[in-house]
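Our preliminary data section would be incomplete without showing what the modeling component actually yields. Below, a chain of 467 amino acids is followed by its predicted structure, encoded as tokens that our downstream tools consume directly.
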Amino acid sequence: MAITFEYKNFTDENHYLAMCAEVMSVRARGARPLACIRTYGCQQNVADSEKIKGMLSEMGFDFTETVEDADFILFNTCAVREHAEDRVFGNVGALKNIKRRHPSVIIGLCGCMMEQKHVTDRLYKSFPFVSLVFGTHSLHRFPELFYNTVTYGGRVYETGVDDMTVYEGIPTRRDGTFKGWLPIMYGCNNFCTYCIVPYTRGRERSRKFEEVVDEARAMIEAGYKEITLLGQNVNSYGKNLEPRRTFAELLSAIDSIEGDYILRFMTSHPKDCSKELIDVIASGSHISTHLHLPFQSGSDRVLKAMNRSYDREKYLGIVRYAREKIPDVSLTSDVIVGFPGETYDEFLETVSLVREVGFTSLFTFIYSPREGTPAAKMDDPYTHEEKSRRFSELLKAQEEISASRCAAMVGSEYRVLVEEETKPGVLSGRTSGNVIVEFPGGSELIGQFANVRVTKARNWILNGELA
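Predicted structure:
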């Protein structure tokens, strides 16, 4: 049965922006209220925080990186790994003394962790100084929730409220001036057995095609040089739209916009990575030649237990087609080591796949059980020490591959987007294939494209000079 999603504009919340601005103008400790936003987790969380900052700007806030100076402190949380949860609770606990010194400060939490009942129960019981908690589905209601917190003085909790709606028009205050995130869809329908995201982000829903293209055009006209399209699975874009559109169509439409920019996207799921998409990348004018395609395991049995909906051979078929159509494609991936019940021989199948593909780099993780997922209930006879040894073995294999791939790039010239000055007189940028290059240059080049010749290779980073 198909799920129907509504599309609404943010205007229903606009009056709360003004009301919050009026309240905070007299409540702030300084001339203007200050907000400190801490973001944990993925790029989608970063994009959500940029929307929250946009709303706070409309509410009269300026921003600070120092919690001690803030009138409002908000942690935007991640639930993907246990370590991220532990870090959030530790950092929230440290805010107790700030609340004691400054009773007027408002402390809040939002994001994926807040869509887990055991988390919010713990917060309510053990952290009474946290007065605002809201989940991923209530982002558009933030001004109203904030207003209720400030004016009524109680604790406001709103989680688990998914109205099956995509909200457009939420003001955004982007962190960067030349690199920007552009969400194209929300939620996930895949239900991989180890993953909490479908439970915290809800069912998959795509933004309207024209809305995304228009926002991309506005970003390009505003001078953004790198735009990254975001989704839990961008390859599934458009499945709930009428008429149905594909991610390949969306990517092609944005690529056709005139301008000097590079277009990236993440994350792709192999089961939905079509030949049409690879063909669009191959023929694109602005599309990065970097394809991040998580495979998670090289064992068919483990992939089935993970509910990944593809096998090893299908994944390798995608890689072969990508290499045929895009000879210089840069492939990166995510890998989980120590999924419940994974034997050492099955782990070696992962290592053999890594060697066969020759990835530019990997994001590797030791399996972290998430309460509420099927994998958390699976038998797991292997110790953390055993998994750690396997993890080190995988890292060593990938390090050798990365060093070899980087060495092969010496002497070649690449167009890079200059991102930052890592130390005085040394700049850092990324190639189309998402490989970092450091080279001498002036800070006036930051935010611009430059041609760089590679002179030296390290394991993960290249050194070069302006060409």
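The radius of gyration is 23 Å. The chain has four domains: 7-165, 185-288, 291-408, 413-466. Preliminary results of this kind motivate Aim 1 of the renewal.
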